[in-house]
Every structure is written in structure tokens, then in C-alpha cells.
Design brief:
Blueprint lengths: L6 E2 L3 E5 L5 H8 L2 H7 L7 H19 L3 E6 L5 E8 L7 E7 L8 H15 L5 E6 L4 H9 L3 E6 L8 E7 L3
Parallel strand pairs: 5-6
Antiparallel strand pairs: 1-2, 2-3, 3-4, 4-5, 6-8, 7-8
Helix pairs in contact: 1-3
Length: 174
């Protein structure tokens, strides 16, 4: 099996999400903000969380070498959120996305993890441009994307979705 890189920041570890993270992914995907802003993915038990990881996250990791990362706090090994680079249907380029458990919001972790992943995307994976999508009413996500240097570039309706979302973009060196 291929070994994929783990990345570190001052306070965090970004490790590729695996089936060992199923309990955490189940909890995260059922938080009110995930359901409101990202959508209900019908992950309601450990086996469906494992299936989601196996069928939705792992294939891209195998194909491109990056996908979804579980964010672990160094100080206590707590799994606090996810951040990822996604080859998302309906978007040009690679999408950066993030989600955190409510108790870890507003502590700078999302910026720290996303900023590290942005640097890795450009400098290690050779991605020339990042995109990001967010719900029109998700001000916190919009503020974080702006802080990361992404600029609003319009709206999009993704395949199999009904709601129009905002799209942000950032070119390497841009």
C-alpha cells in the first residue's frame, strides 16, 4: 500500500483520512453546520462512514496523491476537523475545503490547516489554481477564504445539487 505524506503545522497534524477515522467522520458529518452548509451525506453509522471514506475519499487519494485530511491537534491528539483538496465534479481545478467540530471553531485552526494545505497544493502538488465553494449564507467560510487570499469569482450550481453556491479562486503567485 502506498504511504501518503502527513503534514505538520505549529499546532496541528494533517493526515490523510482513513477508515480508522470513521467515528470522527461520522460525528463531523452530522454536526448542524456540516448539514446546513455542506449537506446531509446520509452518513448515519460507523459502517456508512467507513463506506464514505472508502468510496469517496480514498479513490482520489490513490489517483492524485491528495484528498481529505483529518486534522489532529498536536497537544492532545484530538481529531478536530478536516481540510482537503478535492477534484470536484462541476468545478475547474482543485477545490480546497474545510470543516471543524463546533468546539474547535474560532481558534485559528481552520486558517492554520487550510493555509498549510494551500502552500502544499501550490508548492508540492504543483496545483496552479485553487477554487473553493461556500454557501451564500456562510459568512465564516467566506471570511476564511478571503483571509487565505482567495477572491470571489462568481457562483456555480454543482451537478446533482439545487442550490447555487459562491465560488472563490486563487492562482499560485496570484
Amino acid at each position: 500500500m502506498t504511504e501518503f505524506k502527513i503534514f505538520k503545522t505549529e499546532r496541528l497534524l494533517l493526515k490523510p483520512t482513513s477508515v480508522a477515522d470513521a467515528k470522527f467522520i461520522l460525528e463531523l458529518m452530522n454536526t448542524p453546520k456540516w448539514i446546513e452548509y455542506i449537506g446531509d451525506r446520509n452518513v448515519k453509522n460507523i459502517s456508512s462512514a467507513k463506506a464514505y471514506i472508502t468510496n469517496k475519499m480514498m479513490p482520489q487519494l490513490q489517483r492524485l496523491g491528495y484528498s481529505n485530511y483529518t486534522i489532529v491537534r498536536n497537544s492532545d491528539d484530538a481529531k478536530i476537523g478536516t481540510c482537503g483538496l478535492f477534484d470536484r465534479e462541476g468545478l475547474d481545478g482543485i477545490d480546497i475545503g474545510f470543516a471543524f467540530l463546533p468546539e474547535y471553531e474560532k481558534k485559528g485552526y481552520a486558517f492554520e490547516a487550510s493555509n498549510k494545505l494551500k502552500e502544499i497544493a501550490f508548492n508540492e502538488f504543483g496545483i496552479p489554481e485553487l477554487s473553493a465553494i461556500t454557501a451564500k449564507n456562510n459568512g465564516a467560510s467566506q471570511a476564511l477564504l478571503t483571509k487565505l487570499g482567495l477572491k470571489r469569482a462568481g457562483t456555480v450550481i454543482l451537478p446533482n445539487e439545487d442550490e447555487e453556491v459562491l465560488i472563490y479562486k486563487l492562482k499560485k503567485n496570484g
